[in-house]
Amino acid sequence: MEQVRITLLRSINSAQRDQKATVRALGLRKIGQSVIHQNNDAIRGMIRKVNHLVVAEPYEGGDDETE
């Protein structure tokens, strides 16, 4: 399944309460922090809600890496 990397670019200090909650629900705490999520409707909706605070890009790799 496709994955997406979400990175927090801007501070949430002056964001609305529901936008702060969305950023926290995505698992982001600090500026510059990135998380990987499955690319589904729920996550895309969350990204759309806070698109002025985050950047989302396709992520390939991670799960199928072998040593």
Structure explained in plain terms:
The protein is an alpha+beta fold and 67 residues long. It has a single domain, classed as Ribosomal protein L30/L7 (Ribosomal Protein L30, Chain: A). It has 2 helices and 3 strands, in the order βαβαβ. The protein has helices at 17-25, 41-49, and strands at 3-8, 34-38, 54-59. Strands 2-1-3 form a 3-stranded antiparallel sheet, with no helix packed on it. The radius of gyration is 12 Å and the shape is globular. The protein starts with a strand and ends in an 8-residue tail after the last strand. The model has no long low-confidence stretch (mean pLDDT 92).
Helix/strand layout:
Blueprint: E1 3-8, H1 17-25, E2 34-38, H2 41-49, E3 54-59
Antiparallel strand pairs: 1-2, 1-3
Give the name of the CATH architecture. 2-Layer Sandwich
The number of distinct helices, counting runs of at least 4 residues, comes to 2
Task: List the helices and strands in order.
Answer: EHEHE
Helical content class:
25-40%
Order of strands across the main sheet: 2-1-3
Key traits:
single chain, 3 strands, 2 helices, 67 residues, alpha+beta, Ribosomal Protein L30, Chain: A, 3-stranded antiparallel sheet
Question: What would you say about this model in short?
Answer:
By secondary structure, the chain is of the alpha+beta class.
